Fold Chaperone protein HtpG.
Amino acid sequence: MDHRFQVNLRGVIDLLSHHLYSTPGVFVRELLQNATDAIRARRHLEPSHPGTVRLELIEKQDGGLPTLLFSDDGVGLTEEELHRFLATIGESSKRETLEARRDDFIGQFGIGLLSCFMVCDELLVVTRSAKGDGRTMEWRGRHDGTYAVRPSEHPLEHPGTQVFLVARADAAEYFTAERVRQLAVHYGGLLPFPIHLTVDGRAEHLNPAPPPWRSEYASAGERRAALLAYGREVFGQDFVDCIPLRTEAGQVEGVAFVLPFSPHFNARQKHRVYLKDMLLSESAENLLPEWAFFVKCVVNAQGLRPTASREAFYEDATLARARDALGQCLRQYLVELAHGDPRTLQRLIALHGLSVKALALDDDDFYRLVIHWLPFETTLGMMTLGQYRQSFASVRYVNTLDAFRQVARVAAAQGLCILNGAYTHDTALLEKLPRLLPDAQVELFSAAQLPQGFEELTAEERQTVARLRQVATEALEPFRCEVSIKKFLPPEVPTLYGDVDDGAFRRDVERAREETDELYASVLEGALAESREEERPQLCFNLRNPVVRRLARVRDDAQLKLSVEMLYVQALLLGHRPLNAREMALLNRGLLGLIAARLDDDEGTGGMH
Ligand SMILES: Nc1ncnc2c1ncn2[C@@H]1O[C@H](COP(=O)(O)OP(=O)(O)OP(=O)(O)O)[C@@H](O)[C@H]1O
């Protein structure tokens, strides 16, 4: 025999009212939202019905706990509806109409009213239905899950609903005029019906102005100023520009504000989002595509779904489409700047280059539009790709920071402009260039190419370095490194180590062979065999360097060998290459040798005094 689940009513009410929502203050949101839905439902019956929501704080003369009254002139509830919708958890009058009127009602889950039990133990609802027999009914629900319905002794003159909440002692802080005003403006500030708050007999209109993106302005300049002022008010900071947002998917509208500083590239901005004019969240993160981290938004959506706690958008296909469409609005703004106001676009790229680069990577048309304005680091300083291509036929770049460090000084001294592709997106952007602009030449540059442009030695100089060349060649043979001697700038650089593209990989394999077991080493070697034919790395000595010139004159072969080995290890270290065991031994031996020689010198000199 089948059994039914037993539900502990008190437990469910406790769970829903205390654990679903992040703060008790949301009861104001839930009540405003019910009132709004009721007014919208009444408009289905009477389309010209204006609708008003009134809040009143009734303070007790005897110092007892205050009561908060929410009244609306919405559709109201019949006796049957009171039993059905107010007294059944999970039952909502809005659900059956949901598919047909998704853009209309805010509520859908049938649990919102329970949030009131976070701040009071008993709820009194007095209501008269616009559809019923004109009777006013009273529903009294308690936090223990019991309720009573009866005809009210205080009949309402017109259809509508009043909800009375008597503050619970531990929630009295939510029943002050200041707090109620702040919560009502916070959640309901954009609602299209007037909300009035009455305290001590004085009424105040809480939402006199519509959101600025719905207002009319005399000029575009005035509109921009009003939107920027709104951004400052909402987020407490100044923005450099504002971008209108409007999408069909999810029916989103609002404004994106361009941040005045450059955020971390994977920072996700927190946006303020409204759902059907009611505040949903101040920290929505899933609204924009990932690349769009340079803006903060305020938007209202008519056609997206909330999560049950109503504190975020529900992740579904409509939200995904809305996100794409919002990305298109931002893209359109950048495209318009590119055509109409390139200076502003350049300033924006200087501030938010990473966002623009990420979009360019994703979007070919946009890439073509902005690629020449994007800044890159080069061996001759920062420049845009446009500036680079104006001066150099082929775009040469390195793709790691180590490679850039290695070539930067020497290349700059030769007037060679090499791009640093090591920053986020840069290599990918450069690799995309020939695919989108067929006339563009792009080549990966390696330090091994540098010596090709260096000055050759004269016949006389070749003679003076013959001995250095021979000793160096022998000293570096065990390391399969070739030696060349040329003249290059700057003179302070004694040597340049260069290897072909897979050189760094080859070195890694060699080191791994020393450190790991045979199986792994053979796998690595297999991979190495597939890479290109071996080209030996090269150590190029700079005869413009004073130390190298002195070396050429050293007669003591042992001394010369030690110096060459040290220059070799230094060149590797400068290029951030990992040293293998033999090179490490070389370094240790060399350092000890140098210290010993120094000590010998000192002792020799000491002895003379
Ligand atoms: N002010 C009101 N006027 C008319 N009907 C109301 C009012 N407040 C609540 N109701 C009725 O009570 C039902 C339950 O309300 P509740 O706030 O618990 O859930 P909901 O608004 O339907 O959905 P959600 O949980 O998503 O807010 C509503 O569907 C509606 O029929």
Notes: The mean pLDDT is 89.
